[in-house]
Design goal:
heterodimer, A: alpha+beta, two-stranded antiparallel sheet, 4 helices, 56% helix, extended, B: mainly alpha, 14 helices, 77% helix, elongated
Chain lengths: 89, 317
């Protein structure tokens, strides 16, 4: 995916809830790249323009799994707090 | 690219302080994003002006974007940390091990400094080169000191030639460095007040005598310690990401190291000398910043405030 596509995807998946200041996406992507979690590659488009596509690395997948699990735990905990009836018999 | 976007990207270039190759990549990526965004907005029925305004607001403040880009790129690797600390450690070791009076070791140290500086300077001026660059100015200082030993008439003739030439050379180096980032100029010049402090302590008259040699012997461990403090400062400086922390670190380290110099000279430096050294230190610290501001003046057209009042990443209300 490329930067603009990521912004659009995030907006669509969150049904418009998350709206990034789009310029700040790139420093975040570059930090991830420097940490080896994603890798960026320039690709030439048919119209002669270049785009930078980002690919998640193996290290990135491992980190994603950890973060996803932590977020899931956090979400479950919040759900238990705001919907106490849902967890109790 | 319209003028608004040119100003926006110029503002990011100015604040993010990237190397030319990184800058090209970041700016190209932002340009592509802007083109995609404008296309989408004009396709949705907005006029060109409305699309530009909307795009600028949605991109976010250039200051915030540039600060985040700076923080993404500003941390040096451990290899760079080692390379940048090396000249301070080298000179620290020369004094701590009392090798400073061996002409062989001095020659090796200075050759290494000059060789590494020239190599780094011609290979894209990486961040680690600036600490070496500071020490490569030492031969210029040494020539100035040697001029004091010329016969009286010759000294009077040579010094008026030397001073403007040395000042011009120093200013030229500072300008070249400040073009990259004024903080690197300050980093490069940081040892100067420390070296002047030790020089005043060992040679109050400005001339090397037997007394000066004895003084160096007795102060050598503390001279070594001050250089090692500088090495630690550089290492921390390169590992920090935030600019304000880097600035704070240089200021605090400069003051502490000068205090260490005055403390260990056992009264050789009086209050007036300490105040003078502090002024030199603040000069070393602030002159590159003022120079950079002057060099950039006129290149950047101030960003319109109306586009800067939003936070970097925010939730849609």
């Amino acid at each position: 995916m490329y930067g603009y596509q990521i912004v659009k995807e995030l907006e669509a998946r969150s049904q418009g809830y998350f709206k990034f200041k789009e310029g700040t996406l790139y420093p975040a992507l570059h930090r991830l790249e420097k940490s080896g979690l994603v890798t960026g590659k320039w690709q030439m488009l048919p119209n002669g323009r270049q785009r930078r596509y980002y690919y998640i690395t193996d290290k990135g997948f491992a980190k994603l799994a950890t973060e996803r699990s932590q977020w899931q735990d956090f979400l479950n905990a919040v759900k238990l707090i705001i919907q106490p009836g849902a967890s109790s018999p | 690219m319209t003028q608004e976007f040119t100003h926006y990207l110029e503002s990011i270039k100015y604040t993010s302080k990237l190397s030319p190759s990184d800058e090209r990549e970041v700016i190209s990526e932002l340009e592509t994003h802007i083109e995609d965004k404008l296309q989408e907005l004009t396709d949705s029925g907005l006029s060109e002006g409305e699309a530009i305004d909307t795009c600028l607001v949605q991109l976010g403040s250039p200051t915030t974007v540039a600060r985040q880009i700076y923080e993404a790129y500003s941390q040096g690797s451990w290899k760079h940390v080692l390379l940048a600390s090396m000249p301070h450690l080298l000179f620290g070791a020369l004094f701590a091990l009392n090798w400073w009076h061996h002409i062989g070791w001095l020659t090796i140290a200075l050759s290494l400094v000059l060789g590494t500086t020239v190599y780094g300077w011609w290979h894209g001026k990486p961040n680690w080169v600036f600490s070496w660059l500071g020490y490569s100015l030492l031969p210029v200082l040494a020539v100035g000191i040697l001029l004091l030993y010329l016969p009286k008439g010759w000294s009077l003739l040579a010094i008026p030639v030397y001073l403007p030439l040395a000042s011009w050379w120093l200013l030229h180096i500072i300008i070249q460095t400040a073009k990259k980032d004024w903080l690197f100029s300050s980093l490069m010049l940081l040892p100067i007040p420390i070296i002047i402090g030790w020089f005043l302590a060992i040679s109050p008259t400005g001339r090397f005598t037997e007394y000066s040699i004895q003084q160096i012997y007795s102060l050598a461990p503390w001279i070594g310690l001050s250089f090692i403090t500088l090495a630690l400062t550089i290492a921390t400086f390169l590992r920090l990401r935030q600019r304000y922390l880097k600035i704070g670190l240089l200021a605090v380290s400069g003051i502490l190291t000068l205090t260490l110099v005055v403390y260990y000279t056992n009264g050789q430096l009086n209050t007036l000398s300490f105040v003078g050294l502090m002024i030199v230190m603040w000069g070393v610290f602030l002159i590159p910043a003022l120079l950079e501001r002057r060099l950039r003046h006129g290149r950047i057209i101030p960003w319109k405030r109306r586009h800067t009042d939003s936070p970097g990443i925010g939730q849609h209300a």
